[in-house]
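Troubleshooting log. The previous run stalled partway through. Resubmitting the same two chains, unchanged.
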Amino acid sequence: MTATLTATTPGAARIHAAFARAHAEGRAAFIPFMTAGYPTAQAFAGVADELLEHADLLEVGIPYSDPLGDGPTIQRASEQALAGGTSTRGTLALVKALRARHATPIVIMTYVNPIYAVGPREFMRLAQDAGVDGLILPDLPPDQDLEIADLAAEHGLAVTFLIAPTSTPARVKLVAEACTGFLYAVSVTGVTGAREGSALAEVPAMLALAREHARVPVAVGFGVKDADTARQVAQVADGVVVGSAFINAARQGQSVGALAATIRAGCQK
Amino acid sequence: MALSLPTYPQPDERGRYGRFGGRYVPETLIPALDELQQAYHTARTDPAFLNELDRLLRDFVGRPSSLYLAERLTEHAGGAKIYLKREDQNYTGAHKINNCLAQALLAKRMGKQRVIAETGAGQHGVASATAAALLGLDCVVYMGAEDIRRQALNVFRMKLLGAEVREVTSGTSTLKDATNEAIRDWVTNVRDTFYILGSVVGPHPYPAMVRDFQSIIGEEVKVQHQALEGREVPDVIVACVGGGSNAIGIFAPFAYLPEHERPLMIGTEAAGEGVESGRHAASVAGGRIGVLHGAMMYLLNDDEGQIVPPHSISAGLDYPGIGPEHCLYAETGVAQYVPVTDAQALDALQLLTRLEGIIPALESAHAIHAAVEIAGRMPPEQTVVVNLSGRGDKDVAEVMRLLDLAQTAPAQDAPGVIRPQEVHA
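Second attempt completed without errors. Output:
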């Protein structure tokens, strides 16, 4: 794990501390994801509580009508959450309630259009007020809008950008240097979603390149669905992100907490 | 004379048209967009590429399309001369083929064996499938379930051409969702797949590249108007706008002229049941700035940033956004964007058919409506050029269904026009 962490914001400091705690326990940080308002607005809080029992960080997605980076599982979850009335402001209110009960850092995953619709400054203010620690922005390469990262920093939030197996060395450098929370390495060329078999062949080389430039921990996501894939990722990454598997569990009425416990155990180095 | 592609002052090096445009896409695609930009940059001045494109546009598509003086329509409007730029004469029936052939040639040049496309009305899908068949490429077309219902004939044509048509049932099951799915496919298969994007939307360099490929429409108008009227620049140019590729193709060659030399340019947006009804696809008149499919533009989205499903009688205009260069034109007054309703378009379709024997696409009928209105207020020595972007064969079944639904009322615009009391009964 990167030795020279320099936290630029309170959110970044809390995120880095969460990675450091997991590291001290000989684990990769376990980062479950759940779409806000899923499976229902009422049931979400219970699901999030279960995940927070086991998480080092929780990633909460703002449901969006046109999620380009997501596969069918998260897209359907978003449609259902939106149909149930979940909004951007509503999501931040849900997060605020979670933060009142849990000390675990929470990062928000959102596409840029909801941020622009609310207004970047107002969005950051609301997120800060809700106790959000950081943002993950899947359709915002860091060189597209420099204002967003600046506004986030101004409001104490950390920002996470993504790299992919297709990223050139120059892109990896640019993205890695822009991250203040953690760096999110996408394990596969593709969208989110649990996959058949293991498709993590490209991860080690990508991480080696990322670590040359990143000043923050490096987490891996997309396609991590169980303890086994989590274990493979944990051997090379500082953190493991798991999303669609929890949506699938919640949809099928299975215990999200039990799955989280299993996957967390798989994050052992 | 060899083909050359025009050079315009927009976008800037970051792919921005003022504040519009850009590249809001997953990082996975950024290297592919860089690669595409580089390949296009090289190809656009390479004689081998240009000669092959020129040959195909001439001998395969049938260009140039004519600039046709619509005498009876002119007489009906009672003012300026109305010329039709007959993109409906192109092989496959619309302007879409200009861009598809060019992008498919680029795909081949880049060594990509698989192409994907999205389609609403099916014209872009048919054109992509055609180009793929011609050049021996594998082709997958994404199409919303609702559009598959409305455009059964085009679906069959695509399949006959050897393309695989993938039905999209997410979201509103129309063009925007087909575009989402095409982008997701591209994110997944980006290493060996070329995305043939069908309009002047999407991440940079697509809006610029598609514009350049469609600019042949406006460039031909200059030459033809000169021959017919003794001057290159018409007084008014009208074109329909969904994403806006046929409109940018006829506007762009005139848009960067000095202001006093520019024609009045009018883009017709699909107003559906009326902008005030909320059931429309008029992004300039009824939208707000947002980001969709990789670009910042005028967009139908609510105050939470969720995309509002668009509505239009025409599947081809049923898109919640409008290309970033159009947004810049709208903001700076280079062009004006006016709403035209479903009912007005349906009337105009019948009007043109009865008066000129030309059945236009429902998309193009929106432009016909506005052209007749404005020509009637202009002196007879002036000219209005309408981009007749496509022919109406694909829409005939849907028009028949709508007119069957409509109650026949006394004709007002022309003898025999069926005026629907309520198109969406």
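Takeaways: The first strand of chain A starts at residue 29 and ends at 35. Chain A has a mean pLDDT of 95.
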